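In the previous chapter we treated chains in isolation. Here, by contrast, the input contains two separate entities that must be folded as one system, with a combined length of 596 residues.
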Amino acid sequence: MLGEGILKGMAETARNFVGSYFSAERLTTVEYPEVRIAPIEAARVFPFLVYDGGDWEAGLRCVACQICEKECPPKCIFIEKSKDKKVDALGKPQFYPTRFDIDVSVCMSCQICVEVCPFEAIKMNNEFEMATDDRFGGLLLDRSQLAKSNEYYHQIHPTEAARVEVHLAQEKAKSDAKVKVAADAAVAKAAAPAPPVVKPVGEGV
Amino acid sequence: MFTTLDQIFIILRGWLVSFLPLCMRTAVGVLMSVVTIVLLFPALFALTTVFERKGLGRIQNRLGPNRVGPFGFLQPIADGIKSLTKEDIVPLSANAPVHFLAPIVLVVAVFMGFAVLPMGRNMVLVDMDAGLLFFFAMGASTELAVFMAGWSSRNKYSLLGAMRAVAQMISYEVVLLLSSVAVVMISGSLSLTKIVEAQNQYTWCLPHWYIFTPWGFAGFIMYAIAATAETNRSPFDLPEGESELVAGYHTEYSGFKFALFFLGEYLAMFSISGLGSTLFLGGWSAPFSFLTWVPSWIWFFSKLMLSIFVFIWMRGTLPRLRQDQLMNFAWKFVLPFTLLNLMVTALWRFMGDGWQRWVACSVILVVAYVVMASVSLSREHIKPRRYRYAE
């Protein structure tokens, strides 16, 4: 009959209206600044740079290969490569970024920089309260602001960080093995008898 | 004591006016009443907006605004400051004078309606013999304001909204008038104070409100439907339909002019609820004879706020209609049913006292409701649509 559905709907909303005052589980709202939901592990907001050890400048994993800069769809990353090299975590001399800026007002949180990084150097942060009253300077993050310790990474994304750790260990083992092979070869080369010196014919006749 | 409380505003006005010379007393007295109405209803509007937002929140299992002031009740002040400090933009190609006048015309026309509403015993600004007629004349001129706003904005959304508004308001204006005519037929007067007086009688302890008669109940339902459509409230909020028309006829309004439209919409809601309670719910009369000591204005405003609550409740429940559904409903069901209700009212009038007229009128109305609803709103002839080329 006409109007039946309306009455049914009105009864439903009346139940909500009254019920929301009596049962707290009906209300799904979390009153944000005072109450917070525990951060979700897979949450990603803006990228940050991972460093190992205590000194961020020395331990930065980034080798300034600029792949992320080239892959970034909105082009929010700006990298300046160093002229000199320093020893990285694997013991190899590598370039390092003298400038690494991310404009988070441009960043679209796509995580492509993380996907393409071969050195596990850039990861996604879950910090979202980035509001600032300086919309130009305040949203352009430089190296020192982007650098976060490996421990911090473990803290925010434990599962992913453990996987990365395994991968890095494998890489390290591989590189160590390679170094060892090279060293062995060098040693073997040194130990081998020197080829006989053939005197050139016709000297000092 | 109770009479004093009942007449407190009249007495207060008389006392204040008594300090003035004789020649100024009438003018200043009227001015004071006008100022009271002009201040009171916007204040009620501010209160209603926050109640509406909180109520809608609760209906959707949300909290609603609760940040500004205790329980969020100072929210309207924040909203007011916001709309006052906003830039007032007039589109370059808009018809500036009409664009400027539209919100003013709307608010003025809506305020005029309050002049004839009896808000308590002896509390009516102008006790007009044709008060009902005046009210509807003023109510109809809000359509002009709406169309002025939509047309002068030079915006397709505005114009579409205004076209919809005019189509809808004209369709439902007819129903609104016809459902009120039933009351006039029984009470024999167009004066709203006389209509209230006619309902202010009691049998045992129950009042003679028109809603407690078969024709009055049917009339009230039809009046409520038409009133909802007249004030562009959900589910009849097509003229503003924000999902398809941005904001309808007030798309191009910002700042305080937008606030005026908002105010006008709520004031129209108040005035039409006030008229509805005057016509069918006994206006300022008490619901039981043993409650007549409560001041009459308290009853009027409780009935008003109750109607507003139902408006909010409906808004929280019902989805928006489509334009064709709106028009079909108006012309195929509501209007014929209201016309039939007029016949039933005449029958009631001429059958005299007795139980027979209760049975006869009720049976006719119930049967008509069921039959009309199933016949005129039938969708059986509409088959599922097949797309020949898409198969």
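The beta strands of chain A are 47-51, 77-81, 86-87, 93-94, 97-103, 122-124, 140-141, 147-149. The interface with chain B takes residues 1-3, 6, 9-10, 12-14, 16-17, 19-21, 26-29, 31 of chain A (CB under 8 Å). Compare these points with the single-chain example from earlier in the chapter.
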